TrEMBL record:
Keywords: Heme, Iron, Metal-binding, Transport
Name of the protein described by the UniProt record: Globin
Keyword Zinc among record annotations: no
Keyword Lyase attached: no
Family recorded in the similarity comment: Belongs to the truncated hemoglobin family. Group II subfamily.
Molecular function GO terms recorded: heme binding; metal ion binding; oxygen binding; oxygen carrier activity
A Pfam family of this chain: Bac_globin
Length: 138
């Protein structure tokens, strides 16, 4: 019998995707985000650059966020590398549009049931991502 005390391998940490609740929670977040975009008149400038029917946008954002949060890389599998800034260049995105988009995303995140630390981390990352999409001089 060996007296060797090997430490157990560290358990892999759950991804934000797993911690938020997986596909059902990401779908709920994205669904609520686009509902808010339709319901809030103060985000009109941002809403109008989206298609009238938001179902395609909703599906793409779900697929993107799934991978971005550490879950299945659905977006990459279907569309390739996101190249988000490049894909958004045809749309005028200034601080106003960024802030309107974030208004909806922040509210949708607030309505999700999640750990406050996870919420803060996701919100900070989303804020940086949204800021990166700006392509108009102020």
């Amino acid at each position: 019998m060996s007296s060797h005390n090997a430490s157990p391998a560290a358990a892999p940490q759950a991804t934000p995707y797993e911690r938020i609740g997986g596909a059902p929670a990401v779908r709920q977040l994205v669904k609520r985000f686009y509902e808010l975009m339709d319901e809030m008149p103060e985000v009109w400038e941002t809403r109008r650059i989206h298609p009238k029917d938001l179902s395609g946008s909703e599906e793409k954002l779900f697929k993107f966020l799934s991978g971005w949060l550490g879950g299945p890389q659905l977006y990459v599998a279907e569309y390739g590398h996101p190249m988000l800034r490049r894909r958004h260049l045809p749309f005028a995105i200034s601080t106003r549009e960024r802030d309107q988009w974030l208004m909806c995303m922040h509210q949708a995140l607030e309505e999700q049931d999640m750990d406050p630390e996870l919420h803060a981390a996701i919100r900070a990352a989303i804020d940086g991502l949204a800021d990166h999409m700006r392509n108009q001089a102020e």
